[in-house]
Amino acid sequence: MKEKANISYPLFESFKDKLKPKRSQAQMALSQVNVFSRLSWQEIKIVENAVHIRNYAPGEPVFKQGDPGSGMYVIIEGCVGIFLDIPSQTPKQLSSLGDGDFFGEIALLDASPRTAAATAIENSTIIGFYRPDLMDILKTKPALGGKILLALSEVLAVRLRSTNGELVKASRKLEAFLDSEANE
Amino acid sequence: MSNPDFINIAPQSVRLFFQSFFKTLVYFIVLILALAGVYKAFPLVVDALFLIIIAAILTAVFNPLVDRLESSGLRRLYGTLLMFGGIFGLVALGVVKGIPTLLNEVGRIKDVIQETSATESLNSMMGDINSRIAEYIPGFQLDLDLISSLSAQFFGQLGSLLAGALDTLATIIFILIITMFFLVDGKRMTKQLIGMVPNRYFEMSLNITYKTKQQLTNFLRGQLLAALGVGIQSFIGLSLLNWIFDTNISGVLLISTIAGMANMIPFVGPFMGMVPAIIVSLFNNLGDPIAASHFYYIIHIISMFLIVQIIDNNIISPIVVSGSMEMHPLTVILLILVGSQIGVLGMFLAVPAWGISKVIIQEVYQGLKGHHLI
């Protein structure tokens, strides 16, 4: 039995490997993003055809603070720093993002200026998914566009709920502080 | 003069100014020579570019329809083929049925204008019109030679234009084939082209391309719909005039087509549509003593075109034409003058071409400003 398994197992695995669809790096990266995580592989392939894959050198800005927001980014490979420009000071690094991380998804819905800058820290390959790409999907594949918009709305809802929670906590703290000040 | 820095800085800044001036001048001359070289050495490139521009404009017009077909689940290739099947069918029908009729009509009107007897009858009629006008406006005279030569030139050019269009049927088919490729694969081509833009300008280029394409599509679709609206209304109106008032206007289809196309030119266009109808009606009624005794049919034609314009300006255009076409009347007149250097086609294309350029310039400017590049 053991001998038999040893012979058939690699053959079966090799056959399974051949049947397994090949996923590109971009498809794998997109499937990890919550905006696209519920899409089928076929739908992810359509998104992959719509997105733009860009390479950035270390120190090269992905976007600058104040630029009109036009889309989201998913890091396939590399590292990107998010910086806050403060007048007459060196930019303050807020966070550092690595493989599979994404940022700027709200810009898909809103063209307001970027609140921080994103700069490549090392050689990075990044997927750019912009509003024109989303609009194009909405026009030609409305069902898929609807799924992406719904996922984006969920992201916004989670953030809004979290912000509301923070606001409640902060207002309670403020009330407690004002009460203690009044008692003193 | 007491400041020594001034003495040191001034000559250096002047030198720098001249250096940069001469550098710019050399670049400019090199650019002009390169452009002239490209133009002279590769006239084929210019022709190909012209075909590509026309195909790109057609793509902008048809793209929404193909997008709509694709959104209904049809593959893009099949959607494009389906649409082109319809277009080729219509073109074939137009070529077989419409063009010979139109050419006959143009030839007939041209012959009537050039016939001496007709001109003599026209002379007496014009004399009558001038004497009537003189009752109200003393000293006013309509110049018959001018009207005659202008109308002959107009119809002559139109005829050669249509005949030229037939001759270049192969070119039209070629343009349609390029358009088909653009419609099927245009998005991938645009993506690859934009992919070449450096990272710094990438987002801006993508946005500008998208917005320009959107504006261009809206603009062209609006213009064509408005032209179609005016054409259909003119056709109905002229047919009604023939039916009710017996105005005796022949070539209603041709005149309606001219009226629709001319409508793309603001201010002047409506008159360009009205004039052929009046001229044809005048020539067709030359031998009729009742028609010659009064010119009510001219008033009917003018009124009909005014009604068409009122409907177009107040109902159709506000719905279908984008606001980007708003232009100063002086700009329009200057554009038509410039366009007339190329001929009738130039007059038709000058204003829409300027409208398209305006949209592109506006979008590029807004994009550069938004990204703090200017």
Give your account of this protein's structure:
The complex is a heterodimer of chains A (184) and B (374). With 184 residues, chain A is of the alpha+beta class. Chain A has helices spanning 2-19, 25-31, 41-50, 131-140, 142-183; strands at 52-56, 61-63, 71-77, 80-84, 92-97, 102-103, 117-120, 124-130. Chain A has five helices and eight strands. In chain A, the strands form two sheets. Chain A has a four-stranded antiparallel β-sheet with strand order 1-8-3-6. In chain A, helix 2 (25-31) packs across helix 3 (41-50) and helix 4 packs across helix 5. The termini of chain A are far apart. The mean pLDDT of chain A is 87. Chain B is mainly alpha-helical and 374 residues long. Chain B has a domain at 197-374. Chain B is globular, with a radius of gyration of 27 Å. Chains A and B meet through strand 1, strand 2 and helix 4 of A and helix 2, helix 6 and helix 7 of B.
| Class per helix and strand makeup of chain B | mainly alpha
Order of helices and strands of chain B: HHHHHHHHHHHHH
> What is the CATH class of chain A?
Mainly Beta
- Give the CA-based shape of chain B: globular
Beta-strand percentage range of chain B:
under 5%
Most extensive interface = A-B, 24 and 20 residues
Radius of gyration of chain A, Cα only, in angstroms? Answer: 22 Å
Q: What is the helix tally of chain A?
A: 5
What characteristic shape of chain A results from the CA principal axes? globular
In CATH, what is the homologous superfamily of chain A? Jelly Rolls
Amino-to-carboxy terminus distance of chain B: 37 Å
The protein's oligomeric status is heterodimer
Strand order of the largest sheet of chain A: 1-8-3-6
CA-CA gap between termini of chain A: 83 Å
Let me know the largest β-sheet of chain A: 4 strands, antiparallel
Which sheet architecture does the biggest sheet of chain B show? none
Number of DSSP strand runs of chain B: 0
